[in-house]
Amino acid sequence: MLRRLFFLLLCSSLLGFAQTKHPFTFEDMMQLKRIGEPVVSPDDKWVAFSAVDVDLEKNTKTPHLWIVPLASGIVPPAGAESGHRIYSLTGPQSRRLTPATGSGEDRIRFAPDGKRVLFESSKDGSSQIYVQDFDTSSGTLTGDPRKVTNISTEASGGTWSPDGKLILFVSSVWPDCTDDACNKAKDDEKAKSKVKAKIFTQLMFRHWTSYFDGKYNHLFLVSAEEGGGGVRDLTPGAHDVPPFSLGGQDQYSFSPDGKEVAYTSNIDEVQATSTNSDIFIVPVKAGEPKKITTNPGSDSTPLYSPDGKYIAYRSQLRGGYESDRFRLMLYERATGKITDMTPNFDRWVDSMAWSPDSKTIYFTAENEGEAPIYALNITQPNSWPMELVSGFNDSPTPTADGKTLVFDRMSVEFPNEVYSAPLQFPQCRMAVPPNSYSVGDCLLSKAEPLTKLNDPVLSQIQMQPLEPYWFTGALKEKVQGFIVKPPNFDPSKRYPVKYLIHGGPQGAWGDDWSYRWNPELFAAKGYVVVMVNFHGSTGYGQKFIDAINGNWGGPPYDDLMLGLDYAEKNYSYIDKDRECALGASYGGYAINWIEGHTTRFKCLVSHDGMFNTQSAYGTTEELWFNEWEFKGTPWTNRELYNKWSPHMFATSFRTPLLVVHGQLDYRLDVSEGFQLFTTLQRLKVPSKMLYFPDEGHWVLKPQNSRLWWRTVDDWVDEWTKEK
């Protein structure tokens, strides 16, 4: 009787708990911790990671270090599906390694013996590498952190040598300086100068959000002992090592014997028109670097096998095309032989890791709205990747005993958390195309969460899952779309629509999380969110991606219109008379194109979109992108530039449009936004512009982000909400 009473009370409590959930808010999103790459300790007992705290009022983002025991996986209750959010009544065992105060710490790495860790911190005013002792039994840091770098140009990207005696790191330095004193003197002279003018002698004079200042990334070595001693430049010269990257795996690594380092660099003369990065190896003690790849496209992310026989890396075969298929390549160190390990696997190989026995490579690859983890056995000729774990995953890391895989996972319903999955289980052999299983009763490994840092916030929020649908799009091919319903959804009601268009254009919507374009937050105020992965989107094969090349307003536009037609016809809760379309980057271009080609929307939002294809060419930095997508330059293929330029159709502009652009956006210069807004105003089309003087292609500062969401939401409400 008492047990039944307790059960009823518990059910009543949980029911009340569920009823108190509220729609997602921007303030909720800012409370969420942004978890970084998980790192497993050498003894397989611990998983460490960083988590960023956002202080909205201080307008700051601060990372701190966390740890969780690997054996503490939160087992889902019977019947629960892997990948769905499950709340634990007892809570996870994650805990902070460092205090939630100060300037923060990031990028933790265990020493090979597991008794020390390194991390980055700006506690003394500049980013430097620190080392601290680690108690393997209790999973705690002991003693005080010891600064091992004290370089004026700062240090980041620290990595241990296999013997734990050296640390490899990255710093941006003047190429003609041979010591830190020289770098400091040149930096001081520049800072004190009253003249801020620059003289350019080459292209790529600015990139992403900053102008080229004459300095280059180099790899340095320093002793892991306190004080570090002198640092040694391993990659001198006027080339970036590693090259610019927006994220992903390290572009450098130690060989298992510690005698050499492999790294990525692009040494082509004209960086603005080249995607030709290559893999180099350089001796740790002394010697000249050796280039080991000859492919005209991008070669990157070198990763030594534990037995030292191979270097695995990612490769794109076509030069000048940043969206060619990423293949998994294998370089045999003894012979120099290079083998394409995924010649027929028509998906992009992303983050990857070796198994401890050097027989298997684990990797993620985006596929139809997910990013499963695959395994490829390199010992079997013509081996086909096996799908191990479904869902949207990243950073697969096997434990030293080879029994468990640790990774991070996200969903449209939750941001990154750390997960684990067993590796010893019946695997799914993949057929062509991916997700067509050749074994009917195969078993995917069941992933279990190791962390639930964000449950205190998420457990109070009502969200709806991502719902996929398929339709016949352009070229009579199947195209995938997605819907997110609003909280407290009532199928008998009719809802206004926010139609989101992704950027890239070689990108995709899927069951993943975003802090910038978050479908759940777009839906939270009573909207149905519709998204379509038009031709050009990733995760559907390279032919599907290539269909957008030289065809920006063709099949992609048709897909967008057909996908919305399908949703309007098949989902009775959609109010087709109250729809607003929103997009950024290529999505912004698509909005500008839509403005001149249909009046079906009540309003539009164009963020950092291309308006004039010819002026965009002259003001961007990565010229390879425009030259590939529009098949030449404006003076060699003016017809195609004009054909797909939204500004050529300005006489048809009618729909109210909000323009958003950042001054520091050098991918798509702010002048594109100004031209669009000027045109709309002169045509007397209802319009407004949100201008950020301190943001680039993305709006990243917390308070700027709050203004972005308020402005966008208010604009859409103004034109779509019932009066």
Write the layout of secondary structure elements.
Blueprint: H1 2-19, E1 22-23, H2 26-31, E2 34-35, E3 39-40, E4 46-55, E5 60-69, E6 95-96, E7 105-110, E8 116-121, E9 128-135, E10 140-147, E11 156-160, E12 166-173, H3 180-192, E13 206-207, E14 210-211, E15 216-223, E16 232-233, E17 252-254, E18 260-265, E19 278-283, E20 290-291, E21 299-304, E22 310-315, E23 327-332, E24 338-340, E25 349-354, E26 360-365, E27 373-377, E28 386-389, E29 392-398, E30 404-411, E31 414-422, E32 428-431, E33 436-437, E34 448-449, H4 455-458, E35 461-462, E36 467-472, E37 478-484, E38 495-501, H5 519-523, E39 528-533, H6 542-546, H7 555-570, E40 574-584, H8 586-595, E41 603-607, H9 613-619, H10 623-629, H11 638-643, E42 657-662, H12 670-682, E43 687-692, H13 702-720
Parallel strand pairs: 1-35, 38-39, 38-40, 40-41, 41-42, 42-43
Antiparallel strand pairs: 2-4, 3-4, 4-5, 5-6, 7-8, 8-9, 9-10, 11-12, 12-15, 13-14, 15-16, 17-18, 18-19, 19-20, 21-22, 22-23, 23-24, 25-26, 26-27, 27-28, 28-32, 29-30, 30-31, 31-34, 32-33, 36-37, 37-39
How does this model look, in words?
It is a single chain. This protein has 13 helices and 43 strands. With about 725 residues, it is α+β, with helices and mostly antiparallel strands. Strand 7 (about 105-110) and strand 8 form a beta hairpin. Helices cover about 20% and strands about 30% of the residues. The strands form ten sheets. Strands 36-37-39-38-40-41-42-43 form an eight-stranded mixed β-sheet, sandwiched between helices. The N and C termini lie far apart (about 55 Å). It has three domains: about 30-95 and about 345-460, no CATH class; about 150-190 and about 205-340, Neuraminidase; about 460-720, Alpha/Beta hydrolase fold, catalytic domain (Rossmann fold, 3-Layer(aba) Sandwich). The radius of gyration is 26 Å and the shape is globular.
